[in-house]
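Sample entry (580 residues):
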Amino acid sequence: MCLKKISLPRERMTDFDLDAFVRAAEDLNRRNAETFTDPFPKDPSRLVSHYNFDPRPPEFAAPGEPQGGLSGLPASLIDFGFVRSVFASAYSDQGGHCHDPASLFVLTLAVHLDGYSDYASFCRDLRQEDKGRRYREMAGIGGSVPGEDDLCNFRRRVGAETIDAVMDVFVNFFREFGLVGEQMFSTDGQLEPSCSRFRGCAHFCDGCGEIRLTAEHREEMTRQILAGKKQISITCPFPDAVEKIRRNTEKKKGGPVIPKVILLGVDRLPPDRPDLAGNEEVTGLLSPDTELPPLTVTRCALSTDSDGETVGRCPKFPSDPGAGVGYHVDTQNPAGKERVFGYNHMRTTALSPELGLELPVGTTTWPAGISEGGVFTEHLSGLPVPVLPGQVHLLDAAYDQKDIYMDILGNGGVPVIRYNPRRENLSGDALLKRGYDVNGVPYAPCGRLCRSGEYDHDSESRRHVCGHVCPTEERAECPHGDEVGGYVRVMPADEYPRLVGPVLRGTDEWDILYSNRTSAERTNSYDQEVVGKGRRHGFRGLRAFSFSASVRTLAQLLRKSLNFILSVTYALGGAVPANA
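Predicted structure, serialized as tokens:
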């Protein structure tokens, strides 16, 4: 574990040392016991493991190194029994025996807190008599030791929603403890590839996996075989996808493309080798009444359903139909883009400049390719930290949308979002014609830029004046020359939300605030390199990726918070001695 240098006054450090954390954890345990009271549907006798909190003083093998790993510190101070109530809705009173969900949650969290690269390596250690004893005692594991399949079934059963509920508990706990800041947040997306190959069509849908062939489809495929074609196809049967592809390719060389679905590959056979023919298979699927020449089947995406109807599967239909196609900067070639077929995790990071802490407070997962700006409002509403007056939200140009500005401003927040010019004409003449520059500062009738005044929170507008910067002789001819301050223009935020806000774009204040946005990128990098150990996870499906992102975000919150507490305690010369 890496202890960080703490630059706080000594009297301030005592608010965050291990003794303070122990007291706060005791209060958390008491509140959780009073709050989470939903009974678990299965009788305790039907649980093959029984998590039981055993409070004890934390032990250390070296300065800042909890005995056996970082997971031992929260396990010795925090009662995770409340998660049994959180997960109760995912279980039934029917069925056989199962592991205590609190036990499986503690083990799942330990995987990411103690730096395991995957669940398989953790389960190998868990089964070892000496190496896994601490984990088994911590999780209440008796004779039946869970394996990788048990943890997988647990992830599939409880889903990300329950992990997010546990995340809310710890975010609020660390808010009260003082580690999670409430005044500055940064949000960014992170693409993660699915364990599935992208097959070249980004317009697939569920119907692509089972295309019901009409009589016209079968007749057309039969005509292609008789005409000697080797790749037998039909036109894509989904009009919306056909129209999108046609529209996207109509200006490219070769004209618009009409997508085809190749369902059959055949080769003609010489007349002297009828023993190799696969005619019966082809005629049974297409046209039993038509005599076909001797054929051998090289590829087949056709089958029959329970009703005996012929159905096809588009060869471009991926094995993970829930994933999408997104693009991010290519790490090998920063000037280019890298295509990712998978999912997008949107994470929000809370900044505490005084403590030098950047802690994640929530994550939401969607298929890649969905606009981050289009789902940000939903993500923001699901965070455990409300939008407070004066709260700053740092976002890149992907979030430069009117509804996002209005949502943040409507709650008293301060949006600091990089401007996305899209296809706007930002030439000098065009800006002068529209009446204000790229920062939202208007031009006076004489063509000079105005000076900006303070933002009026009551009317949610900003007042601009020319300030009489023109020469005296020109001012005498100006219709606004006799007015105090000269030309005046008030720009309301609801009319110009992308340009008018509490912090004026283009100022030093705006630049200083926006420079903190990289904290969200550091959070995503930490998730990939530290929590995820730089490995590509073998998941498919939105449910699996959502759970993985949520539990890794929770682990990052705990890792960073606990490391900070240990660093403070060590800096104070407190209870983190070697060989304790």
